[in-house]
């Protein structure tokens, strides 16, 4: 067994033991220290986040009780890092029940001026959202990693660490202290690149360095020297100071962790009790008592008595020699150098000599950790880069393979109505912009948003920003430019009677704090010159050091009223100035903003440090806000449930359920929020189906499908890899009855819901995007099935042969015009039509003087069963272009009726809609001949042919109108009298389209089966759908004018309405404010169109048609393909040139026919000429047709001869009879 394995085994056998009796965490001041005990150092938080304090760990460990001490320099007097260390030792020893117990001191840092957002609470509490668990921070990490690494630390030792670094230290092999003399002081060093080393302390270890051994092995080595911030040249001159590690030239840099073993620790204890007792609270009190002076406060006394800062490195460690120093320099010479060091100038030679004599007998060695890594969080930019890079997909964390610091880009946040860019981090924030009248919020690339609580507000965060602790509601857009820092902090109050006040810390990312440099990223002098702000506005009169540190630029505000309104007016000018410079100040709003900024109280960073209430901020961050986020999630879930069950037209967003699905790694994970969302779906769907509220269940199914599609897209965007092993699981429930709209079996739906929920969990575990997409498909199908329940009308049993039958071999022919929708389309589409109410205006039109759609049916003795044919013919000649036929001999031949792309699917559905065959199964081998014999009283076949003279996917209502033609001729051919009733045909077409699974509304069949101009409406909340048709007469002169102006052209691109339909239905299920406004405008536009036509106001009609086209595009949503590029060019050109007043694509859009309303005095020739002149428009694919209003709708008649087809069958009755 190797040495590494032996030590690792020993460490595991002993179990984790905490070597420290006391943890001392120092804070910038006493208020922050007290606040930390109520926040991160509270016992319940330590138990939750630090395994050392977990109940299981403390129960198993035999280690003594650990003291948690939160302190600051006594009386908030700055004593330096050495003075703070001695004060912490005294505080720990005074509370330690064990004599000389081991102490871990973690310094939270002083002013943190280079990272202002950490100034009030300290860098020790910089929150790090781990991808694998809860949030952590540098202090927790140091507690955990140093306790593990030093599990064998000799009792009585003292370890000092700085919290402005994050250390990744291997824990498998703890430091072996058994052979180490107790008079040693040990630094902790890791290998780092030379450029990094120039900003840190460097240990020089003489001799060759080899890191070929286990990277987790820790060695204690003698140090030849210790250099503070050496140059690269200096390091390279010192033999053994630099060496190669992973093909990089590196050096051993100091991590800020110093280990004083027992004898050296005793010396520190002795110093703080005697020579340096003034650097302890007890010693300082004694000095005050003996001073004889009268002070207003202990703080004032301490500030007078403490005249020198004692530093850990320059005053204490500098007195401790390395082996190299001992070997090359006599003690007398070392003392002389120590006394002459410029860092020690504040102390007298006597004081320094006392320190030197106490410490110089010890030896400074180094623990080298080859496998360790080191991250310094010195500046705001360094912290932001660490947070963003640590959570990015590209970097897979700060260091590849470093699991400990792989961060999450989203932790415990609720974002609603917020567009989030790439590579940013949000944690413990709640931003809800759904009820903001100013629109959605957005977070830019590489930005950090933490601890924000904004309701009814819109915030626009630029790139590379830090946004911390903003709270309240705002009536103006909070617009933050890129590279900005903003933080909101509570101020201390003298009494409870004083209203709560906050300071808004607002500055540029690159503003230098301790220099007269930049403000908001602009040089101060330039800012003053261009804004009218003066130096006296920012600094006190006579101030010599005019730095950002003491610049009073951070406004003090209050949150007003019950909504905690945040007044953003004093800040508006900053954004405008960053965007437009001095030119922006011509705007009166900007001028007023600067005026208000000048008028209100403002603080400097130095004043904020002394006046911010760290205690309130800790409570807000660690207690109040997390509870609010959790409560908001639960409230949102319950509210969504209420919206769905009560059928409210309110927006539903499941953003809360998806925000934490992804961490930094390319994987998806289950979350409480997602499971809560699934629970909402399950409850709503099953309760609604149980109570036959199928509309409610349909919306829930569609929303669940949208959620799955969004998750699948997120997985695709993050390039989620397929699992190494193939996931064989797929959603394939044997719910064949779900395919039949007439049947709802509750247990089938229970099984489907449970199946989908299980599949989603498996998809997450397997990182399987295709499985999530499968779930979406089945959920969408379930939504469609429930919608069908709300659309399908109950048709009483139909009897054939009730009227006289035509002779065998005689065609019964039904023809119909096409339709052009002028306004209101989509409002007729279920579920929109029965949930909101629909209204559509349609014109029945002939194309090239033909009624372009027909169907014919005949009884025939030439074959058995039913022969179905779908054909396409030339509208001018009637020549056959293409055809497709199916011979239905058995019931099973109809089983693919739900597939719109199956051969003759529409004709198959017509047979089912008229209930000639009631139930279809792919295994039903019943002969169609026996069924027809039973229906018609003789053994005879049927032949049904549908004919379209329009291109496929025309958008002119082709399939629905053809369905009406097929039902009419088929019904009359077999003696079904009801098909002579047009409302019955309209209702049955609706049923047929549900069978066909294309969905769709009722405007198509109404538009073509009724002649002329009609307003078609459906009442909301009436199930099943009932369509009302108002036929409107058009004066002859108006018809003539419309016929002159109305032009149609085939775009050359077919489209399947179902593709766009699904996008529309998903948007409708979500009920965004935009969608609701659009549907409302669609319905209103239909009534306006009728009025415009009747008033002969064609200019207004054109405008309404244009608005209608914009509404169609809005309904389909972005990237829907509803408006092809070439179509957009044609419309824009013709309208811009004044050739047409209105333009739209017929039907759903995406292709098909263009419908143009030409301007007064313009002709088709003018349109063609304009387009021909534009080289950017390819008119070759566009085919123009003559179009005119057809006053005649569906017409059914018998053929007079034995011909198989006649072009006359596509003429209106007047022309046909003439």
UniProtKB/TrEMBL annotation:
Residues 1090-1163 form the GHMP kinase C-terminal domain. Gene3D superfamilies: 3.30.230.120. Residues 98-557 form the GDP-fucose pyrophosphorylase domain. Keywords: ATP-binding, Kinase, Nucleotide-binding, Transferase. Residues 937-1012 form the GHMP kinase N-terminal domain. InterPro entries: GDP_fucose_pyrophosphorylase (IPR012887), GHMP_Kinase-Related (IPR052203), GHMP_kinase_C_dom (IPR013750), GHMP_kinase_C_sf (IPR036554), GHMP_kinase_N_dom (IPR006204), Ribosomal_Su5_D2-typ_SF (IPR020568). Residues 1-17 have a biased composition (Basic and acidic residues). Residues 1-20 are annotated as: Disordered. One of its GO terms (molecular function) is ATP binding. GO terms for biological process: GDP-L-fucose salvage. Belongs to the GHMP kinase family. This is Fucokinase. It comes from Chaetoceros tenuissimus.
